[in-house]
Amino acid sequence: MKTKLFLLAAVMVASFTSCLKDEIDTITHNYDPEDYKVIAANLNLPDEVDNYTLNLPQTVGGFEVFADNKQATLGRVLFYDKRLSVNNEVNCASCHKPELAFTDGEQFSPGVTTERTSRNTLALGTFPSFNAYYGFGGTRMFWDNRASSVMEQSAETMKNPVEMGNVDLGELADKLLQEQYYFILFKNAFPYQTYLTNEEKMLTALQAFVSSIGCFNSKYDQELIDNHGDETAQFTKFTTQENQGKALYNTNCASCHNLGAVAFSHGIVAANNGLELDYQDEGVGTISNTQSDNGVFKVPMLRNIELTAPYMHDGRFATLEQVVEHYSSGIKNHPNLHENLKDGSSPKQLNLNESDKQALVAFLRTLTDKESLLASSLL
Ligand code: HEC
Ligand code: HEC
Asked: What confidence score (pLDDT) does residue 13 get?
């Protein structure tokens, strides 16, 4: 009897919607048919992206990064919901746009007030797997490494008066749950976890979604796979210029900016790269109050770097050419300048010629994987 009702309802849903068979499969796998009617009437949740688990190629680890699909689905809906901000005008995606590798193209981002954020928005789409990078090894988030998880980071962002405006998270979660489709999404995401508060469920779901973001299908990745992970090989589908840039990158940049040869290998997580002799924003130093941390910032991953301008913690460089010029001739001899950028006691300016500069930029552009970003992220 139950099965019959179930089928009947599924057929009814099918007759209301357009793409038939696939949709029914998703419905029967993920939702009670009545519930799906409510979901479909309110949200544009495409069925093919319901699987948030990432299968990483050997070149970036070769393992599966498991995601709780239902929690990630709820997190995804939350990520795009403007009710998460105090004036209902700002959502996570206001600053983290999927098509820009989850940045926003701004030097500093507008939030709920006329003020802007004090730092450049960090990209979320620069890792082979966000989860493998942060979830497995305890690496910390933000430019100054102050948050230890997306839950902590999200709570901080929503309570930040400039970003989302001091939201009361408990009240917000209760308010959202009065909405029928949220009630269903919460119920599906947390069927047994009665020990969690609604606020904790909301943050857990946001974490599941953000953690599911990953990019490992750039031109560089495809060539790396073809060359069995040997990043020093001449890549046949690269232009001469891109290969020239790759060699320069391997010699001068990869010691700090690893490209995730192993998705969870962190290498150097924070460093000073000589932007200033005297920083207005001391980065990790503002948190630790330790002299040797002054001017030290997160070493960002450079996947999709073409999409995430402007660059550095304060968005000071509008283009990749300007970034390369910094490493070529502009490194300042800050007392904490990292040894990888030093030659004895002086900064190691790369003194690149024009051809090398262009080659390096051309190589950085091979790290773009727009498709993965969009597939895993749009609502
Ligand atoms: C007003 C713009 C703005 C909004 C809205 C916003 N963020 Fe951010 N986000 C930033 C900025 C700026 C940073 C870097 C802050 C810093 O390091 O001090 C950041 C950093 C992060 C990081 C850390 C990434 C890393 O690699 O360290 C995560 C994760 C994140 N945001 C997720 C979210 C989520 C989830 C939401 C919604 C709940 C959100 N953000 C809303 C601007 C924003
Ligand atoms: C000592 C380690 C180190 C080396 C070597 C290094 N970088 Fe960086 N890089 C950093 C740090 C730290 C930052 C962030 C600094 C800040 O914002 O204050 C950064 C930032 C960047 C950014 C901006 C990223 C963003 O999301 O805004 C780019 C692009 C970049 N580096 C490219 C390169 C290139 C190309 C090379 C080689 C020529 C290189 N880096 C060498 C440590 C390093």
From this structure: 36
Is the Cβ atom of 164 under 6 angstroms away from ligand 1?
yes
Q: Starting from the CA of residue 96, give the closest ligand.
A: 1
Q: What is the pLDDT of residues 265-322, one digit of tens each?
A: 667 889 999 999 999 999 999 999 999 999 999 999 999 999 999 999 999 999 999 9
The finding on whether 90 has its CB within 6 A of some atom of ligand 1 is yes
Question: In b/e form, how buried is each residue of 257-278, taking b as 16+ CB within 10 angstroms?
Answer: bbbbebbbeeeeebbbbbbeee
Query: Do 144 and 286 meet the contact criterion of CB atoms below 8 Å apart?
Result: yes
Whose C-alpha lies nearest to ligand 2, atom 2? 256
**Distance set, CA 194 to CA 27, 154, 186 (Å):** 25, 22, 11
Asked whether residue 365 carries a pLDDT value surpassing 80, the answer given is: yes
Q: What is the pLDDT of residue 368?
A: 97
The closest alpha carbon to 124, from 106, 150, 146, 148, belongs to 150
Alpha carbon distance 44, 39 (integer Å): 8
**Ligand 1 center to 142 CA (angstroms):** 8
Looking at residue 12, its pLDDT comes to 34
Q: Report the atom number in ligand 2 closest to the C-alpha of 327.
A: 38
Ligand 1 pocket, residue 296 CB under 6 Å = no
Check if the beta carbon of residue 329 is closer than 8 Å to that of residue 349: yes
> Residue 158 Cα, ligand 1 centroid: separation in angstroms?
10
